């Protein structure tokens, strides 16, 4: 039961946090994930894998309550339009290391842009240089 690294609408204070995570989490801690570049999408961000680069995405590490884990995993896969092996996925759920603010590294699930989406974003997308989609990190944020 891996925790989830969230960086967009599932973060505390964002719309989908209340819809999908409220009451289902045991802990929520600030964290970062290296080797990802964040791109602004229409209403939500995409993390694109950039191995070997110093890019960092900031978000939260969400640990689910054990009794809610399986249902939450299914709900998040549905929200992110992820089906294992499907060529139409917008996101892929992958296992990567998240680093907590105290320096501890934890393996977590993260939804990253699927290969076709990632290629389009690399070619024409708008990267969020801060790696943080919340607040001022968003393109056009106020």
Automatic annotation (TrEMBL):
Keywords: Acyltransferase, Transferase. Residues 4-134 form the Gamma-glutamylcyclotransferase AIG2-like domain. The keyword Acyltransferase applies. GO terms for molecular function: acyltransferase activity. It holds the Pfam family GGACT. Signal peptide: none annotated. InterPro entries: AIG2-like_dom, GGCT-like, GGCT-like_sf. Its EC number is 2.3.2.-. This is Gamma-glutamylcyclotransferase family protein. Gene3D superfamilies: Gamma-glutamyl cyclotransferase-like. It is an enzyme of class 2 (transferase). It comes from Streptomyces heilongjiangensis.
């Amino acid at each position: 039961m891996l925790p989830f690294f969230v960086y967009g609408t599932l973060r505390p204070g964002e719309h989908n946090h209340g819809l999908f995570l409220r009451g289902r989490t045991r802990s929520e801690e600030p964290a970062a994930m290296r080797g990802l570049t964040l791109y602004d999408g229409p209403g939500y961000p995409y993390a694109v894998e950039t191995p070997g680069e110093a890019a960092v995405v900031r978000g939260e590490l969400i640990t689910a309550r054990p009794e809610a884990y399986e249902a939450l995993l299914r709900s998040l896969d549905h929200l992110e339009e992820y089906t294992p092996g499907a060529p139409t996925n917008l996101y892929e759920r992958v296992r990567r290391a998240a680093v907590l603010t105290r320096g501890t590294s934890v393996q977590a699930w993260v939804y990253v842009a699927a290969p076709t989406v990632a290629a389009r974003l690399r070619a024409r997308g708008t990267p969020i240089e801060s790696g943080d989609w919340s607040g001022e990190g968003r393109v056009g944020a106020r």
